[in-house]
Amino acid sequence: MSYDALLWLSFGGPEGPGDVRPFLENVTRGRGVPPERLDEVEQHYQHFGGVSPINALNRSAIGRVRALVDLPVYFGNRNWHPMVEDTLAEMKAAGVRRALVFPTSAYGGYSACRQYDEDILRARAAVEDAPELVKIRQFFDHPLFVASFADSVRAAAAGFGDDYRLVFTAHSVPVSADRAAGPPEEGGHRYSRQVAEASRLVAEAVGVTGYDVVWQSRSGPPEVPWLEPDVVDHVEALGAEGVANVVVCPIGFVSDHLEVVWDLDTEARDRAAELGLGFARAATPNEDPRFAELVAELVAEHLAGAPARKLSDFPAAGCTVDGAPCAPLCCEPAKRPRR
Ligand SMILES: CC1=C(CCC(=O)O)c2cc3nc(cc4[nH]c(cc5[nH]c(cc1n2)c(C)c5CCC(=O)O)c(CCC(=O)O)c4C)C(CCC(=O)O)=C3C
Ligand SMILES: [Fe+2]
């Protein structure tokens, strides 16, 4: 199979105050997020002038990937411009017939994997005679992903000697969504188990034996259970335990974005300061040159049909054609209550 492009598929984020509300409406359309939560999240964005760092960081990484791969690289998002539908139309007009897709998420699960397949379906439905789109596999246990986080944890912890608690954090999801993550015969929880596995690998690389895995940025109505504990609550619990310093590693994300700079660098950091805890946040991989190398390796691996380079034997999937699920009933979307 030959490919004539690479499509970088991401979440998207607003780039000015006027973008915030329409962006949030795109994110939450039909998802049962209460309006009060949206108002609150809008304030987080406006606190940063309505600009999320995510688009600029994607463009910066794409620049480095362009130097490493032999394919034109296009950029499209689920929720904000450049929208993936528009990018795909542009690709089609440029004569692209088959493209690889790099999704900016390392994990399985509905929000982290299957929803990107839905983006591919939606984009292809919007473009007549659309190019074929083949998505690249999950990479939570790739040696370059793990090494990048391990170095960022070491750098963040540098001022604390050995006296710190390492806390990994990933985006919370509804408990029901995590239960449905992966193919049904595996028993579910593929998202939280992959997050736990990546955390274990990074802790091992750093040489830390005691660490925690917690969740952040929960949304949805309060009566719906989401993965816990929350990172800010956890910082409080560590303070009560007498822990002196906390190093937070956002293992669930490939780049900084609003939920990293708000929930971690603002909320969790402020709470730690109030409690007199030392606090440091490990960098996400995006700006590490190894992240571009990781993407180039994943592309080369796919083109060569080479075996996956990975540090664990935990199941991974995600390589899909034209937005089909990884396997029948894999990460089935939840039936959401209409509001
Ligand atoms: C697993 C996961 C990832 C990691 C995988 C990946 O990276 O793709 C992720 C990433 C991100 N989530 C982001 C932003 C938001 N997520 C929301 C809402 C939700 N996220 C969910 C899950 C995830 N989200 C879920 C289950 C919801 C509930 C509603 C729904 O089922 O969709 C909302 C709505 C408001 C709110 O309620 O918080 C916003 C604004 C941004 C961009 C931030 C920026 O602009 O910089 C990024 C990278
Ligand atoms: Fe999210």
Question: What this model shows, in words?
Answer:
- The protein is an alpha/beta fold and 339 residues long.
- It folds into two domains: 5-139 and 287-304, Rossmann fold, CATH 3.40.50; 143-285, 3-Layer(aba) Sandwich (Rossmann fold).
- The protein is 42% helix and 13% strand.
- It is built from eleven helices and eight strands.
- The chain has helices spanning 20-28, 35-47, 54-66, 84-93, 110-126, 143-157, 175-179, 190-206, 231-241, 258-274, 289-304, and strands at residues 5-10, 73-77, 98-103, 132-135, 165-171, 211-216, 245-249, 278-281.
- The strands form two sheets. Strands 2-1-3-4 form a four-stranded parallel sheet, sandwiched between helices. The chain has a four-stranded parallel sheet with strand order 6-5-7-8, with helices on both faces.
- The longest helix is centred in the middle third of the chain and has 17 residues, at 110-126.
- It binds coproporphyrin III and fe (ii) ion.
- Coproporphyrin III binds at residues 11, 13, 24, 27-28, 31, 33, 37, 41, 52, 54, 105, 111-112, 171, 173, 217, 219-220, 252-253, 257-259.
- Its EC number is 4.99.1.9.
- This is Coproporphyrin III ferrochelatase.
- It is an enzyme of class 4 (lyase).
- Belongs to the ferrochelatase family.
